[in-house]
Design the sequence.
């Protein structure tokens, strides 16, 4: 039975053509030794059967993937009677690269110029006769999805099977390369090299530096191939580059002669938008304005609409649980643990889920629309002007979600200097876990300027990070920053499903942590707050109160030298969400957000609240981040350094805010 | 063509495939293809941040690797050497 192989780029309609040719006569298996799927089927045409093999979709026939090796090995070793090259007419330039490689193989090729209907819709016209002449192979227009042109394609294939050797057009690599190909071909033919591949094709592949072919080639031939490669290399242009470029030149010439398509808009809508959004002077203020709007909407939707409902629900739930526990005569200590500890602590964190959900929904929309890449580009320019690597900002943007992946993202920085700086400053970027702290304090003290204060806190974190980065680049790490180019993806409308899924990812992680890490922290702290036995729960006399009392004097100059604030900060080193959870618990009897806000209003002043928020923004990162720094720098020294210096920076700035604010008569 | 695209990228701080396609009088899909070729040959390297570095096992992470803030392209030393000789 004669065999016809189908080869083509992914999405060229190859499988549709395979289905059109074989109908239900198909079977699927695997290519020997690899996990690549092998599809075969039978074509019945004019009372004769033909074996159809659907080769893996591939853009070229190099040795870069299993798919490529499987496809080229089948063509060269199994020698199908005809190879049908399925070419997407709407992407002809790209698809013809594979065609050129088939021509190099000297195999019998027919081009199925597929998706002609779509090409017509896009006003792409292709002179098929001329294309056939230029390639030196038959070209048949097809619309596989509508079974158009299939019969003609089969007939051409059958004709070619019986046609003997068909002369094809060869790629002109230029005199020098052609000479070396011929020289190598002759050496290969006269050698004992026993392969199933054609000698001319081996010669080209050896010049291209094909690893797979080099491995199976005799050492002497390989040595000559290297010498030939050196002979044709032009300056830093390796033979592979020259050969690949010649293929594109060949394709370019053919496309110029045979394809007509409408001229694309030179300045697109995207370009026009980018001119404004990435403008040298306007870019940064626009970015700041967009972020301010994000925070404004976070409060408007998340707090004013959603959180109120959740608060009421939590209040009812806590009251029901408490009443149930009292009714069943549960021990007083258990009732206190569940209501004050769990519902007061973990509940205080959970109440901020609506705000967190809204904020990440809005940030997700910005990401999906393609704007975040523009923001990174705008900041890249500023970072570079400060002598910092632009990618540092990308890792900082990632840090807004969580500093752990933010620090992981610094792996994109090539130089050690750039990477170390990016790692050391990332903890200053406020992660999602710190958000509930700001929300509680902003609600308590700055209800009229919620979005502005939140925006200022985030911006301040970035500012401190950049200043510290500059200091580190001048002191600890010196050297040149490497260069990169950023891709600006096209603008697009975010999909509802995509953004909601993105938001749910974050919210579910937040809830998971509230139910695990925060629950564990709250449990331990609650036990410490009711011991020793008989002490008044959540009082200064408890173990927790005593620990807090020891730490508290450190924070007195910053305006929040209370034992409650101190243990809150202390718990934040385990996980930042634990700060609010701990405050919710230690202000005894506080079960939900509004009451926590009231308790905080009694314990802080606007100035000490601001100082506390800045401290939580800047001080020692959580244990997970410290662990990540140790892992990424492979150094305990840097992890300890980060934990200590961030604390020092946070403390100094908090003290400065409180003291200077006091001098100006603020309280 | 490959050198042309490498040169264009080298002259840009940010690029879009559409803009590159317009400059080189070709299609976006061709630009994509050429970039893949340059990557394969080691003249450029591409990174998706943070997707390339997310392993979904980061303790304390509430990002879940779903972000894709920026794709960046670096012209490698090999690429720079090539450009220097052009």
Sequence:
């Amino acid at each position: 039975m004669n065999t016809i192989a189908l080869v083509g780029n992914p999405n060229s309609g190859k499988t549709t053509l395979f289905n059109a040719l074989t109908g239900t006569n198909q079977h699927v298996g695997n290519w020997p030794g690899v996990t690549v799927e092998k599809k075969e089927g039978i074509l019945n045409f004019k009372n004769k059967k033909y074996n159809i093999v659907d080769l893996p979709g591939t853009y070229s026939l190099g040795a870069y993937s299993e798919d490529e090796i499987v496809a080229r090995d089948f063509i060269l070793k199994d020698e199908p009677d005809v190879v049908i090259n399925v070419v997407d007419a709407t992407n002809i330039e790209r698809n013809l690269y594979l065609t050129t490689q088939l021509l190099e193989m000297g195999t019998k090729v027919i081009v199925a110029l597929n998706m002609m209907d779509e090409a017509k819709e896009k006003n792409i016209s292709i002179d098929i006769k001329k294309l056939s002449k230029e390639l030196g192979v038959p070209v048949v227009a097809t619309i596989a999805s509508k079974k158009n042109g299939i019969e003609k394609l089969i007939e051409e294939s059958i004709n070619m099977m019986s046609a003997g050797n068909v002369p094809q057009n060869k790629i002109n690599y230029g005199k020098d390369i052609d000479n070396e190909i011929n020289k190598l071909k002759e050496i290969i033919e006269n050698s004992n090299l026993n392969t199933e591949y054609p000698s001319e094709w081996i010669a080209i592949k050896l010049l291209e530096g094909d690893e797979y072919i080099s491995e199976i080639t005799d050492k002497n031939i390989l040595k000559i191939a290297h010498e030939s490669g050196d002979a044709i290399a032009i300056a830093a242009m390796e033979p592979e580059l020259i050969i690949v470029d010649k293929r594109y030149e060949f394709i370019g010439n053919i496309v110029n002669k045979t394809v007509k398509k409408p001229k694309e808009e030179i300045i697109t809508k995207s370009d026009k938008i980018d001119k404004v959004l990435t403008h040298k002077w306007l870019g940064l203020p626009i970015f700041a304005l967009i972020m301010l709007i994000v925070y404004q909407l976070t409060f408007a939707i998340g707090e004013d609409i959603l959180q109120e409902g959740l608060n009421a629900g939590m209040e009812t739930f806590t009251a029901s649980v408490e009443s149930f526990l009292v009714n069943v005569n549960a021990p007083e200590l258990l009732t206190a643990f569940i209501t004050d500890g769990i519902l007061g602590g973990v509940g205080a964190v959970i109440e901020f889920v609506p705000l967190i959900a809204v904020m990440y929904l809005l940030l997700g929309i910005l990401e999906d629309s393609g704007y975040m890449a523009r923001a990174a580009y705008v900041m890249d320019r500023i970072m570079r002007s400060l002598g910092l690597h632009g990618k540092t900002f990308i890792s900082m943007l990632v840090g807004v979600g969580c500093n752990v992946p933010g620090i992981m993202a610094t792996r994109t920085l090539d130089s050690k200097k750039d990477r170390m700086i990016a790692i050391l400053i990332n903890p200053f970027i406020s992660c999602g876990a710190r958000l509930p702290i700001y929300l509680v304090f902003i609600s308590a003290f700055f209800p009229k300027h919620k979005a502005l204060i939140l925006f200022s806190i985030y911006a301040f974190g970035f500012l401190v990070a950049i200043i510290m980065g500059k200091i580190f680049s001048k002191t600890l790490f010196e050297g040149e920053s490497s260069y990169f180019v950023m891709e600006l993806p096209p603008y697009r409308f975010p999909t509802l499903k995509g953004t909601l899924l993105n938001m749910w990812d974050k919210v579910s992680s937040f809830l998971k942590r509230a139910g695990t890490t925060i629950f564990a922290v709250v449990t331990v702290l609650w036990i410490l707050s009711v011991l020793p036995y008989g002490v008044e729960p959540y009082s200064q006399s408890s173990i927790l109160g005593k620990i807090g009392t020891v730490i508290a004097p450190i924070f007195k100059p910053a305006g929040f030298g209370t034992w409650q604030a101190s243990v809150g900060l202390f718990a934040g080193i385990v996980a930042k969400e634990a700060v609010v959870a701990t405050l919710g618990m230690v202000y005894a009897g506080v079960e939900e957000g509004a009451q926590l806000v009231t308790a905080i209003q009694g314990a802080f002043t606007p100035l000490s609240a601001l100082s506390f928020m800045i401290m939580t923004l800047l001080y020692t990162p959580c244990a997970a981040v410290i662990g990540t720094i140790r892992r990424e720098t492979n150094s305990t020294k840097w992890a300890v350094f980060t934990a200590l210096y961030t604390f020092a920076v946070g403390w100094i700035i908090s003290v400065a805010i409180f003291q200077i604010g006091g001098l100006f008569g603020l309280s | 063509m490959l050198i042309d695209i490498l040169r264009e990228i080298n002259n840009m701080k940010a690029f879009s495939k559409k803009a590159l396609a317009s400059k080189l009088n070709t299609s976006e899909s061709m630009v994509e293809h050429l970039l893949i070729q340059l990557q394969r040959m080691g003249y450029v390297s591409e990174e998706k941040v943070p997707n390339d570095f997310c392993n979904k096992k980061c303790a304390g992470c509430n990002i879940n690797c779903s972000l894709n803030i920026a794709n960046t392209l670096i012209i490698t030393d090999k690429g720079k050497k090539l450009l220097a000789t052009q």
Summary: Chain B has four helices and three strands. The longest strand of chain B covers residues 44-49. The radius of gyration of chain B is 15 Å. The domain at 2-84 of chain B is CATH 1.10.10.10 (Arc Repressor Mutant, subunit A).
